[in-house]
Specification:
It is a single chain. By secondary structure, the protein is α/β, with parallel strands linked by helices. The protein has two domains: 171 residues, Alpha-Beta Barrel (TIM Barrel), CATH 3.20.20; 134 residues, Metal-dependent hydrolases (TIM Barrel). The protein contains 13 helices and eight strands. The strands form two sheets. Strands 1, 2, 3, 4 and 5 form a five-stranded parallel beta sheet that branches.
Length: 341
């Protein structure tokens, strides 16, 4: 019963400029296109919100592309535009490490948020109509994006920090600010992000690993099984975000195939009806559940398209370069081998 999804293109954050990040992304996008071509009765590429509706009405799964990590544009707005032409409709600004122009939530802060070039990346994404995704970014980057972006932004797969203090989650003050931006927080299912006991279990295991090594940590884990959340915990996050930001700003960002374990009762997309049933059981209206399972995300995509249409009338593509805006020290020069082997 899936109507639309994002195929998330990912390469490790260690793949920076000169380390095949863009190539890896292009090859993964190519896999998606070939998969869609192989199963045309099941999938169709969607480039706009209207495409999603048309494909959904045709009984197929509307497939949109997302780039999970700004390192894959290799500090190039030209590459960003090329990815847009290839069908990419959102980009997560960072993954687990900082980029040369934005701080990540799970790295040591280097920029205090966005650099000047990072702000230009956000502006150019707005002009293109590519959604700015602030999952994975540091709090300071979240605030900078909300200040700079003229279009609604998304958290493609993040949950509420109210329940677990993981830096990948969304603080309440950011959630309230995102409502002013008209964006959407798409709740992820990662057990260590959504469930306090699971998060604490992971912190304890990491502490043992640092103190006594991998073998000791594995032994402790075998003697102390991971406490796993269930579908009700996801509903808790959605209800809290609804209360903080409003029901128009909550969505689903399961992150299936991007996580090692899943909540009990949410093993794959076929179990989404269990989450719908849980929300209805708690008294959510049909209309509000429809917003969460898709309408909010589609609204954000459509609004980003409208902003892009206006901005394209107002300004040309940006030719900004990181070397000029931020200085050479933030963008290492390309390494050219002195001789071939």
């Amino acid at each position: 019963m899936v109507g639309a999804q994002f195929w998330s293109t990912y390469t490790p954050s260690s793949f920076g400029p000169g380390h095949i990040a863009a190539r890896g992304a292009m090859e993964q996008n190519d896999v998606v296109y070939r998969l869609v071509e192989r199963y045309p009765d099941v999938f169709e590429i969607a480039l706009t919100a209207e495409d999603v509706w048309r494909i959904f009405r045709a009984g197929k799964i509307a497939s949109m592309l997302g780039l999970e990590g700004g390192h894959m544009i290799e500090n190039s707005l030209g590459a960003l535009r090329a990815f847009y032409r290839d069908g990419v409709r959102y980009m997560t600004l960072t993954h687990s490490r900082n980029t040369d122009w934005a701080d990540a939530s799970t790295d040591t802060l280097a920029h205090g948020g966005l650099t000047r070039f990072g702000e230009e990346v956000v502006r150019e994404m707005n002009r293109l109509g590519m959604l700015v995704d602030i999952s994975h970014v540091a709090d300071s980057t979240m605030w900078d994006v909300l200040r700079v972006s003229e279009a609604p932004v998304i958290f493609s797969h993040s949950s509420s920090r109210h329940f677990a203090p993981h830096p990948r989650n969304v603080p309440d003050d950011v959630a309230r600010a995102l409502a002013q931006n008209r964006g959407v927080i798409m709740v992820t299912f990662v057990p260590g992000f959504i469930h306090g006991p699971t998060y604490e279990w992971g912190q304890r295991q990491d502490s043992i690993r640092r103190a006594s090594g991998d073998a000791a940590a594995q032994g402790w884990a075998q003697a102390n099984p991971t406490p796993m959340p269930d579908v009700g915990v996801i509903a808790d996050h959605m209800e809290h975000l609804r209360d903080v930001a409003g029901v128009d700003h909550v969505g689903i960002g399961g992150d299936f195939d991007g996580i090692g374990s899943v909540p009990i009762g949410l093993e794959d997309v076929s179990t989404y009806p269990a989450l719908v049933a849980e929300l209805l059981r708690r008294g959510w209206s049909d209309g509000d559940v429809k917003k969460v399972v898709g309408l909010n995300a589609l609204r954000v995509i459509a609004e980003a398209e409208r902003v892009a249409a206006r901005l394209q009338r107002e300004r040309a593509p940006s030719t900004a370069q990181i070397e000029i805006l931020d200085g050479w020290e933030t963008s290492p020069p390309w390494r050219v081998p002195s001789s071939r082997p």
